[in-house]
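Here we describe the complex-level prediction in full. Unlike the single-chain runs in Section 2.1, the two entities below were treated as one system.
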Amino acid sequence: MDHGAPLREFMGLTFNLSNILMITVASAIVFLIAVISTRRLAMKPTGMQNFFEWVMDFVKNIINSNMAWKDGGRFHVLGITLIMYVFVSNMLGLPFAVTYNHELWWKSPTADPVVTLTLAAMVVGLSHYYGVRVKGLKEYGKDFFKPMWFMFPLKIIEEFANTLTLGLRLYGNIYAGEILLTLLAGSLATGFLGHAVAVLPTLLWMGFSVFIGAIQAFIFCMLTMVYMSHKVSHDH
Amino acid sequence: MLLDSYVLGASGGFNGGDIVFQLIMFIILLALIKKFAWGPLMGIMNQREEHIAGEIEAAEASRVEAKKLLEEQKLLLKEARTEAQTLIESAKKQGEAQREEIIVAARAEGDRLKNSAKLEIEQQKEQAVSAIREQVASLSVLVASKVIEKELSAADQEKLINEYIQEAGEKQ
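The structure predicted for the assembly as a whole is:
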């Protein structure tokens, strides 16, 4: 747990190579799932196609619970990609963590605030972009003074608060889970007694982490759509 | 030292590279999923929707057609039933008429037979009566002649004959 991160400087930017690795792995897994699911498309869906259609329907329901499909249909792909990417990322750190040269390489990419805040900022940024695009600059600007003009500062703060909470909620949940798993794994390695004591909590926490990972992916997708609907829908 | 790693951003510095990489990767992933999974799957889902709608419509149409056919068949059956009814009715009537006819004919035939038999009987009776009369006449003559033969002389006989002849002549 006191491992460092494999930081490298490149073109004036700092790269955490473990993040780079895990983002790539998570993206690759999501992409593989998507491709395998849709390799043999049929009118009568079987196996993986069923799964992917279920994911699509699930995200569709999330969107429909927040706004009309006419407004929200454009976020369908975004929602599917987000929920799958976040879920896969959350799961990646569960089975093991790999350290090399005292640097932590294998972990959940979502256990890093930089990654989650990037996603959150992207979502909030997109919501502003679509707000302007759908309602026009004037309507979009007016929304900051509703329902009262003096709410303006709060509205501005709200946008930053949204970004921070969206990103940090995910990061906090996953990072805490990994810390606890690391601690438990540490006690697993302390000999027979420590092993005996730690086995059950480790199993329990693993299962609970799977649950948390799924819930967090759902919440992330849900909140994305909530923010989007605030900016896109007309009746707010 | 241990707590350092738990503190936000304590891993040192600002990882601008991670941000850029995450953004680029996510956008690439978004594009790939849209191209390889979402598009085709949406297409096939729409296709399925259309297919189901078409099937429902076809089912509806065939249901209507079946209903129509059923009505038609019911009507035909009804027609056939009434036709059969009338056929039976007319056959019954015809049978009745035929029965009447046969009975009348039989009665007439019986009457005719009875009449002719009566006539014949009458004739036969008359014949028999006349035959008997003749017989009786000749017998009575015979008996009379036998009686007369004993008591009548030739002269008386002649006188009697003449009287008869005369009588006969007067009668004619």
